[in-house]
Amino acid sequence: MMRPAAPSDLGAIMALERASFPTDAWSETMMREELVSTHAHYVVLEEAGRVVGYGGVRAARGLPDADIQTLALDPQVRGRGQGRALLRALVGHARDSGAKKVFLEVRADNSVAHSLYVSEGFGELGRRPRYYQPDGVDAIVMELDLRTWAPQGEAEPTPAEGGRGPREGASG
């Protein structure tokens, strides 16, 4: 079940955050601020009452651009289309907020997340060398034009899903 994230989800989100992004996890303070921001929309994915995924987008109502901030899944639920479902929910929220384009950054060494984004219509704009620290990994900057985006069919599983938007790194 997918639902809007609440401040009470912070502990579960941080456990996934640290497991998914061990070298560059956000601090609890940063995540708490994201969860209560009026310009951010975060969702969690629950199975059997346990948070197994989360994602967030910054999409201020009426502005033409939105940014996927983060997306992460528990390794036990990867490969079942859950990452795609989270991504589509975030992109849909951006579109509903009036955005015309959605941007994100993904680690150059995360081919699974990159493939997911490409399959949903994101195109590569460029790279930011050594963006993800302390690992020194490049960020691939990607863009999706919401005026032409239309998700096709049901969410199809990929081998492993996970990714980051503009704030930090991504891991599969």
Brief sketch in words of this structure:
The chain contains four helices and eight strands, in the order βααβββαβαβββ.
Would you mind describing this structure in some detail?
This protein is of the alpha+beta class and 172 residues long. Helix content is 26%, strand content 33%. The protein has 4 helices and 8 strands, in the order E-H-H-E-E-E-H-E-H-E-E-E. Strands 1, 2, 3, 4, 5, 6, 7 and 8 form an 8-stranded mixed β-sheet that branches. Helix 1 (10-20) crosses helix 2 (28-36). The protein is globular.
Topology at a glance:
Elements: E1 2-4, H1 10-20, H2 28-36, E2 40-47, E3 50-58, E4 65-73, H3 82-96, E5 101-107, H4 111-119, E6 123-132, E7 137-145, E8 163-164
Parallel strand pairs: 4-5
Antiparallel strand pairs: 1-2, 2-3, 3-4, 4-8, 5-7, 6-7
Low-pLDDT parts are 154-172
Largest sheet: 8 strands, mixed
Shape: globular
Average of the residue pLDDT scores: 88
Structural class: alpha+beta
- String of helices and strands: EHHEEEHEHEEE
Separate helix tally: 4
β-strand percent reads: 25-35%
Rg calc: 14 Å
Helix content: 25-40%
- Alpha-carbon distance between the termini? 22 Å
Number of strands: 8
Index terms:
172 residues; alpha+beta; 8-stranded mixed sheet; globular; disordered C terminus
